[in-house]
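Re: adenosine-5'-triphosphate structure - here you go.
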Amino acid sequence: MKAIEELTSFVEYTINELSVDFARSADIGIVLQVGDGIAKIYGLENVASGELLEFEDGTVGIAISLELSHVAAVLMGQGLNIKQGSFVKGTGKIAQISVGEELLGRVVDPLVNPIDGKGKIITKETRLIESPAPGIIARQSVCEPLQTGIISIDSMIPIGRGQRELIIGDRQTGKTSIALDTIINQKTEEVICVYVAIGQKESTVSEAANILQLKGCLDYTCIVSASASYPATLQYLAPYTGATIAEYFMYKGKSTLVVYDDLTKQAQAYRQMSLILRRPPGREAFPGDIFYLHSRLLERAAKLNAKLGGGSMTALPIVETEAGDVSAYIPTNVISITDGQIFLSKELFNSGIKPAIDVGISVSRVGSAAQTKGMKQVAGKLKLELAQFAELESFSQFSSDLDKATLKQLARGQRLRELLKQPQNSPKSVEEQIGLIYAGTNGYLDLLPLSKISFFAESFRTYISTKNLGYLELVKKEKKLSNESETLLKQAIETVLKEI
Ligand code: ATP
Ligand code: MG
């Protein structure tokens, strides 16, 4: 600090000597110190917090800390050519990015520069990266479902458009897979998706982009990537860029989905920035405003009222835990901000239950209001049977002679659990999910060997989509299970069971 003060007085002295007034002019400054993605600047007297700065070598920075003696700015690039004494210009613009339809199908960095080699992106509009969340009047409560295509989520932990649902779990438990499957399922739902990859390997991001391309889902998706090799400042900025892109479409009346993969890495990048800025560290060395970092991001998810076009932004933040510890700092913070969480368990994953969703401790606080009637009709029973099964299973491990009713209930539970297993990249439609849960909870599968359950699910899908279209169409139209569609469904299940 002393060195900075000395340098400041030296610069001041030189400026006075030379009678050059540039440091006192509205928007010119001189770099005092630069390193680790942060620059300390003297001058820039009229700069605003969050203003974009331009360095002599063309590097862009954002002023984030205005102090009496200097301004601290984060660099949005390597800034290798910035030297002590280089000039800095304030642009008068608060940090903003270009947005538009042109971003769909593209992979960009947090400053919306293309990184997919498909050429320049020319858009007409810009939006502030840090714009305030919609207020109370602008919103309406969550009323439309966001179908993930994953049977255990759509039935028991339903997500509504405009909701914020956390996906939390240890590393390698299938977090990214759930998010990507949800994006794939939006192909028929007309939801625009933004996938934000923070601090990931470039190979992982390119794999995700390839899957989306292969499934024909890139046309309605934009990928924002700040991979592990990017400066911490860009990793910190990436989620806000993603939210800004989604917001553009939301205010145009569209439904959007934004995935932040993952916020743990963003928090770590922010911690790095804060420590370099010498802000006081708190719990786990995170700075004091770490909660605000995530709350202001996730508050931007909303379901707008009809006057504003009825658009929505659904957020699926991802947080990584260590050894399933949800009481660490970042997990507890994000759990308290979001409207529920999908908890992925390493034990379930290792025992072959994939997706490894622990239904017992996963919740969705607002989504059930948006669940379709048909799904509600079958999901209640499923939840109950699974809860009873979980209790019974742990009990029955220790006893050898079980009565008939218990054995029956165990068999039912095992079949339901088998039914909820789902491979990657194979989302199921709501109608198909209703049919499968109906078959499981009404005992149609009780006598079927466990190994044949997945085969039944496959055959059922083919049957209702090729031979028995009546059921599919009726449920799609009525959005519930009426007497008529129930008869058709029973008939379909019985035929499929006979055939396999
Ligand atoms: P990381 O912590 O590295 O980000 P992650 O939690 O995002 O990992 P994924 O990358 O989605 O996990 O998945 C981990 C592995 O599990 C991958 O190899 C993936 O193929 C596999 N996997 C995920 N979901 C399923 C599934 N439903 N069925 C079969 N395999 C799956
Ligand atoms: Mg992942």
